[in-house]
Amino acid sequence: MGVADFLAEHKKFEHFGEDDLKVLSEECTEAAFKKDEIIFPEGSPGDKMYVIRQGSVKVFKKIKNNETTLAIVNPGEFFGEMALLDGGPRSAAAKSIEDTKALIISTQNFENLREKQPQVALRIMDVLVRTLSTRLRQANKNLEVISFWID
To answer: Which pTM was predicted?
Structure first.
């Protein structure tokens, strides 16, 4: 299955037209990761985001020498997206849970889209903002639960 067809099957990309998906697929590269492979460590430069094509990835932080899972990412979902927004260092680490294939959108490829195909870049930004909003709302709920146990 081609990249555009894969993306078309997933909800996060449902607002992309066929031509938009084709343009996006041309800016993606692909990578494969073995089970338990570190995709990026916390604090490393953020220069790309990943869309899981096959397999799954754990996003985690080390807190007081304990590995705390922040998310499990499955096919059609993405991680590392803050790199496209702010280019800052990674706020968490990512590790493959099983053999995994991912599509990669680098900051350079995203900049290419912003210059040459701004409507596609805008659709990507919309997906990122919606996803980050959902994650922030969940983090707020988690803080509520934590504060209940701290007081």
So the answer is: 0.85
